[in-house]
Amino acid sequence: MDEPLIHTTKGNLHVSSLNYETTWEFEESYVKFIETYTLNGEVVRQSVHVLSMQGVFAEATAQSLN
Amino acid sequence: MCSSFKSQLMLGQHALGDGTGVPARTISTPDVVKAALYFASATFNASTTAYSATGEVGNSGTYAAGGSTITMATPPSTDGTAGIFTPSASIVHTSFTAASFDCVLFYNSSQSNKAISVHTFGTTSIVAGTFTLTMPAHAAATALIAIT
User: A49 contacts in B (CB within 8 Å)?
Assistant: First the structure.
């Protein structure tokens, strides 16, 4: 089976020729997963996947009639 | 406030004014809502009233000016005492390159691009890659938009 290629800023390269790193960011409102491919230290492909944990709120308050 | 009213607002079931300035619409057809991405240097917040191309990320890969149309298979509903709305699919852009963006604006492109909500997710950069924004759970405590 041929070695898979991956699209980068340098064209389609063999995955094995690249360094692959992942990082995570955890915040109250989101979790972020970052995939980075580098070639000789240069970032040639980076993808980011954000999971929103919480949206925005509008509060409807109850008040008495004055 | 009556809980049912909160979701009915988002469904367009109440018109508490005479509608002056409100464009005509087909009530049985949902409006088209889009999601646009903005650089961290742009200023978008609760004061934002409409979509603007200023500060928006450039055309790249599957991202085009104005952003993408969101999927709304699940209509606004009530969960407990909250009226809630959440897009039913993730926002995905592939073969995408953009540096230092941190914000998505949801806006109603059927109604003069009026702003709906702004959400930030930390400064993000993509290089010839994929950006995925997965929606939160459609529940009172987490929905993308909740009137509590």
Answer: 130-132, 134
What is the distance in angstroms between the Cα of A59 and the nearest Cα belonging to chain B?
Answer: 5
Q: What sign has the CA pseudo-torsion B139, A49, B114, B38? A: positive
Q: How many domains does chain B have?
A: 1
Mean pLDDT of A39-62: 89
A5 part of contact set with chain B, CB < 8 Å: no
B24-50 pLDDT, tens digit per residue, is: 777 788 999 999 999 999 999 999 999
* Res A62: pLDDT: 67
Q: Is residue B85 part of a domain?
A: yes
In a domain, B23, yes or no: no
Q: Which of B37, B54, B140 is nearest to B98 (CA)?
A: B37
Range of the domain at B112: 3-15+33-137
In total, chain B counts a number of residues equal to 148
Question: ipTM of the assembly?
Answer: 0.89
- Residue-wise pLDDT tens digits, A17-37: 999 999 999 999 999 999 999
Q: Is residue B44 part of a domain?
A: yes
Write the DSSP assignment of A46-60 as a string of letters: EEEEEEE---EEE--
Find the Cα–Cα–Cα–Cα dihedral B58, B60, B64, B67, rounded to 10°. Answer: -80
Do B120 and B103 touch, CB atoms closer than 8 A? yes
